[in-house]
Write a structure and sequence with these properties.
The protein is of the alpha+beta class. Helix content is 50%, strand content 24%. It has one domain (6-125). It contains 3 helices and 3 strands. The protein has a 3-stranded antiparallel β-sheet with strand order 1-2-3, with helices on one face. The longest helix has 45 residues, at 12-56. Residues 11-53 form the TadE-like domain.
Length: 129
């Protein structure tokens, strides 16, 4: 017969493993989700800035900036991130400025949950002849 102290600790490693996983898996998925959101935000920001500079060039119009932004996003991310691209001419400190605004939703990594909305804005002063 086995001593009572030996019998009661049997299977404790499995329980400990499950308890640790309950904490570590959501933490790990949260860190991955944060990394994904930051990567998408930085990519959209860079593409919006490139599109604004392209649209602000002397011989370009706003549609060229929109197309350039969508092309930049589509090269790095999926094309669905470039669906909502708004390009317009605004006045910033009295200067005509091209504003590019990109909105997207980053999907969740886990089994459930809402997507994370991301919005970036970029400006470039329009060139004049």
């Amino acid at each position: 017969m086995t001593p009572p102290s030996r019998r009661s600790s049997r299977g404790a490693a499995v329980v400990d493993f499950v308890l640790v996983l309950v904490v570590l898996v959501p933490l790990f998925l949260g860190i991955l989700q944060l990394g994904l959101v930051l990567m998408v935000r930085n990519t959209l920001s860079s593409a919006a800035a490139e599109g604004a500079r392209h649209a602000a060039a002397l011989d370009q119009d706003l549609a060229d900036g929109r197309a350039r932004t969508r092309e930049q996003v589509d090269d790095v991310l999926a094309g669905r991130f470039a669906r909502d691209v708004d390009v317009r001419l605004v006045s910033l400190d009295g200067q005509p400025t091209v504003e590019v605004r990109v909105r997207a939703t980053v999907p969740p990594l886990g089994l459930a949950g809402p997507g994370v909305p991301v919005e970036v804005v970029a400006h470039a002063v329009e060139e004049s002849p």
